[in-house]
Structure formats: structure tokens, C-alpha cells
Amino acid sequence: MRKGITAAEAAALIPDGASLMIGGFVGVGSPERIIDALVARGARGLTVIANDTARPGIGIGKLVEAGCVARAIVSHIGTNPVTQQKMLAGEMAVELVPQGTLAERIRAGGAGLGGVLTPTGLGTLAAEGKPVIEVDGRPFLLERPLRAGFALLHAQEADHEFNLTYRLTATNFNPVMAMAADCVIAEAVEIVPVGVIPPDAVRTPGILVHHLLERAH
Amino acid sequence: MDTREMIARRVALELRDRSLVNLGIGLPTLVARFVPPGLRVAFQSENGIIGFGARPPEGMEDPNLTDAGGGFITADPGAASFDSAMSFALIRGGHLDMTVLGGLQVDEAGRLANWLVPGKLVPGMGGAMDLVTGARRVVVAMQHAARGESKIVRRLTLPPTSARRIDLVVTDLAVIEPRPEGLLLRERAPGVTVEAVLAATEATLIVPGEVPEMPLARPDRPLA
User: Fold this and answer.
1) What is the full DSSP assignment across A101-140?
2) pLDDT tens track of chain A, all 217 residues?
3) A residues 59-118 near B, CB within 8 Å?
4) How far, in Å, CA of B35 to CA of A154, rounded?
5) Which of A157, A213, A165 is nearest to A185 (CA)?
6) What CATH number is associated with residue A93?
7) CA-to-CA separations, A172 to A21, A159, B48, B82, B202, in angstroms, rounded
8) What is the pTM of this model?
9) Would the keyword Transferase be found if you checked this record's keyword annotation (chain A) (predicted)?
10) Range of the domain at A163
11) Which of A49, A121, B112, B207 has a CA between 20 and 30 Å from the CA of residue A5?
């Protein structure tokens, strides 16, 4: 049986200036306890790769408000006015990536691919500075893989070998991010004995997960 | 009837049986309330579900079940959920029959702008670029004008969402079909004359001999 760590221990593993992939879609499926611990530790200079920056007071929005984030690579910031203010004030850099491209760049980073070829973004600002490659007469943008130092995941169930399941739309970016970081830290709603999660139901094999948060006290 | 409902009821007539449809945030979401009887339409939400249902009663929400705007939803029998890579493989890979999106501008080439007003509004593209690139049909549902200015323009002044020509625009004044030769005025809103549509439109419209009044799906029913 593997041993869990506390949220404070998880936050202590993550140095200032680290790059983090954080699961979640407008806060749904985000690891709130790890995020709270990063805010409590006063983390600074983080690069956050995620779908969005949620809302003020929710998920990644808490990191933005606390001034932990120097740079965000996300598909939209429309739900978080604080991110927009900080970006316009020059306190935070925001790189916008089409959502499907973001998912595939992360997948490529975790799958050992040199990038992906996508038609999304051709003829738009998203194409600036990127090579266009023709395949069978059709043009595609070359989008580079994304990796991070850490992936912070929210799972539904974790067993004692750290096998993970996800629930409904709280799944979102969590499984692809689990593949694309040097250190994977998960928190789960439920921790269950090995065998409770059938092998077919495991979405992220535990061998990929470096640390699991103990249950909340 | 408010104009948002009217637009949604006209767009609902574009729905086809056994199709997979993605509705954008805001006005397009209303379309789900007007599915014509007898049609089985599977609605996708880009955050990872096919077959989502109406908002649950208060106190019965599942925190793990939301739409792309973060609002609580339910799941209909036969629903399926998946991760973001799969969700956008569906969108980009030609599996999505139709998307309905809001718009800031549509131009004479049929190009859509709906994600950025430089220096003012920076929401980001979210899934919009993938949706416009990958959906088999792209329908734009929006008001004809904003602050007195036509949103149907000669040439986009805002950054495009895609180079693709979209398939249909439904506004509070008209139904317009972008074609290779230009914007065809197909229908006018109830009580609106062709002259009124032309006067409210910056772009040049191709006006056929007859421009019928737009039909509307029947009024609100609870989502099945």
C-alpha cells in the first residue's frame, strides 16, 4: 500500500517558478485542496497550463487572485475578470490557445509526439509564427507539444495503488495532463482499497501518479 | 416574444433527427428548448458530454456535471461522458453535425469573428476555433446590430475565428446564407420588410425575387 501526503507537503514539493498543468473546466474537476495549499504557501511565479482560470474564488481563480501566477497558457479567460485585469495591467502573461489544440498539445507532450497538425486556427491570429504543413493537399498548422514540471489532478476515486477514476464532466483535462508532467500529484474525492476499481474502469494507471493527497481531515 | 427567443426558435428548425449538435454559451443554449417534436437530437457540451439534459432542481445539482459555461445540467438516458481530447476529436474530426455559435461580426465572405475585441474584450477563443473549423454545419445566432452598428459587415474589422465560410446566420431581422457569390437574404423576421433589413445591414445582400417571413419552431417546451 502506497502512502499519501498532506496538501501542505504537496505544495512544498512545488517550487516558485514551476510550470503546472491543472485539471478543471471553469473550476469543475480542479484539485481545490492542492490549490488552497499553494495559496497558503504563498507560491510565486507559477506558469499554469489549464483550460481556463475559472472564476474569482474558485479553483485556479484563487491562484490568480493571490498573485501566484506569472503566466497562464489557457483557452479562455472570459469567466475571470481578475485575470483580464492582471493581463491588461501587465502583471500576468496570458497565452491563448484554442481548446482542442490545447488538449492535443498536452496529449502530444505525454505521448512522445513531436507536435500535432491541426486545421484549427488557420487564417487567424492563432496561426502567427507557426509553420503550415500540407498533407495530401490540405494545409495544417504545426502545434508543438506541451509538458510541465507538475500535473495537479482531481480524481473521483483513487485506490491504494493510486489508480484513478474521474466523474462525468469533472474529467475534462485531467487524464491527458496525467501523461504530460514530470511529477503527477492527485487528490481524490474517495480513497478506496485496491480491487474496488475494476481494471477496465481505471482511467489513469496508478504507476503514473507520483503522489496522492491523504483524505481531508 | 423577445428577439432572443425568436432567433432560437428559427435556429431550432435547422436541427435534424439523430444528429450531434453543439450549442455555444448564451443565446445558442436557448435552442435546446425548442427541439421540434419527434426529433432526437444529441447535444454535446465541449467540456465532455453527449446527451446532457435540462438544469436540475435546486438542491439536486451534481458538482461534477456542468455545461461549457459552468452551469449545472443533468444527463439524459444514453448520455456519454469523456475527456477533453475526445471531446475535441469529435468536434474537429467531422463527427459533429452542427454547431450554433454567437457572433460579433459576419462579413461578405461568410467569415465569423466571435472571440476578441482587441484592447477591450479578451475572453479568448475557448472551443470556438475548433467548432468553426470542424463542425459539418456552422450556424451563427446573433442580434443583427449592436449599439446601432450592423454586425453583418463588408469585411471583418475584428480578428476572424476561422477562415472557413460559415453556413447560416440567424438574427432578429433576417436569415442570411453566406455563399461563394456573397450573402443571400433568405428570410426576414415576422413584420420586418426587406427594405428594413437592407437599411440595417452594412454588407451588400443578394436579394432574390421572394423573401419569405421566417418560420419558427413552436413555443417553449421543457427539454425532454
Assistant:
1) HHHHHHHHHHHT-S-EEESTTTTSGGGTT--EEEETTEEE
2) 899 999 999 999 999 999 999 999 999 999 999 999 999 999 999 999 999 999 999 999 999 999 999 999 999 999 999 999 999 899 999 999 999 999 999 999 999 999 999 999 999 999 999 999 999 999 999 999 999 999 999 999 999 999 999 999 999 999 999 999 999 999 999 999 999 999 999 999 999 999 999 998 7
3) 74-79, 84, 87-88, 94, 96, 98-104, 106-107, 118
4) 35
5) A213
6) 3.40.1080.10
7) 12, 20, 6, 7, 41
8) 0.96
9) yes
10) 7-98+146-212
11) A49
Closest-CA residue of A relative to B130 is: A120
Which H or E element spans position A36? helix A32-41
Query: Is residue A86 within a helix (H) or strand (E), and if so which, with residue range?
Result: helix A81-88
- A129 within some domain: no
Secondary structure class of B59 (helix, strand, coil) = coil
CB atoms within 10 A of CB B23: 27
Break chain B into its structural domains and give their ranges: 3-53+63-206
Which residues, 6 or more positions from A52, have their beta carbon under 8 angstroms from its beta carbon? A24, A25, A26, A60, A74, A75, A76, A77, A78, A79, A80, B124, B126
Catalytic annotation on B195? no
| CATH class of the domain comprising B3-53+63-206 | alpha beta
How many C-beta atoms lie closer than 10 Å to residue A217's C-beta? Answer: 4
User: Is A124 part of a structural domain of the chain?
Assistant: no
- With an 8 Å Cβ cutoff, are A77 and B122 in contact? yes
Q: Is B43 helix (H, G, I), strand (E, B) or coil?
A: strand
- Give, rounded to a whole angstrom, the gap between the first and last alpha carbons of chain B: 22
Which residues in A182-207 are b (16+ Cβ under 10 Å) and which e? ebbbbbbbebeeeeebeeeeebbebe
Asked whether residue A49 is domain-assigned, the answer is yes
Q: Is residue A50 assigned to a domain?
A: yes
**Optimal mutation site among A87, A120, A128, interface B, most CBs of chain B within 10 A:** A120
